[in-house]
Design goal:
By secondary structure, the protein is mostly helical. It folds into two domains: 13-101, no CATH class; 107-132, no CATH class. It contains five helices and two strands; from the N terminus they run αααββαα. The protein has helices at residues 13-21, 33-42, 46-62, 77-96, 110-118; strands spanning 67-70, 73-76. It has a two-stranded antiparallel sheet with strand order 1-2. Strand 1 (67-70) and strand 2 form a beta hairpin. It is globular and about 55 Å long.
């Protein structure tokens, strides 16, 4: 049973599903690579696969009767179920609309990012000290 994810190289469908459902922490994986591969066999649409994964997590988490209590906060298993179910609904809606996942751009520094979002490559922006 393996877990692979590299935020700098999200080129495989497996990595894209992990990114969509935020299963990116190898120390606390929601799924093994084999499980996500099985989900992708069930449905090759990335958003539907993410939806299936979220529904699986929601169902799994709803089986555990737990309450997390912190000052001012109580999180029940039912709330975890609702959160993952809502996320599953979101991915399912995007799949039905025929949405296509976009890839993220990684910028090497703040100036490059500002140039990309403003389209103004000819202007040198004043950046606060230590922002790079």
């Amino acid at each position: 049973m393996t877990f692979t994810y590299d935020a700098t190289s999200i080129s495989t469908d497996l990595a894209k599903v992990r990114m969509l459902i935020r299963d990116t922490d190898a120390s606390k994986p929601l799924f093994t690579d084999e499980e996500i591969t099985a989900i992708l066999v069930m449905d090759t649409d990335l958003y539907m696969a993410a939806s299936l994964a979220c529904r699986a997590v929601a169902t799994d988490k709803s089986k555990t009767a737990m309450v997390v209590q912190m000052p001012g906060t109580n999180i029940t298993a039912q709330e975890v179920y609702k959160a993952f179910s809502a996320q599953a609904d979101h991915w399912e809606r995007l799949a039905k609309e025929g949405a296509v996942p976009a890839t993220a751009n990684v910028y090497e520094d703040t100036q490059t990012w500002l140039d990309a979002i403003t389209g103004r490559h000819d202007i040198e922006f004043e950046l606060p000290t230590g922002s790079d």
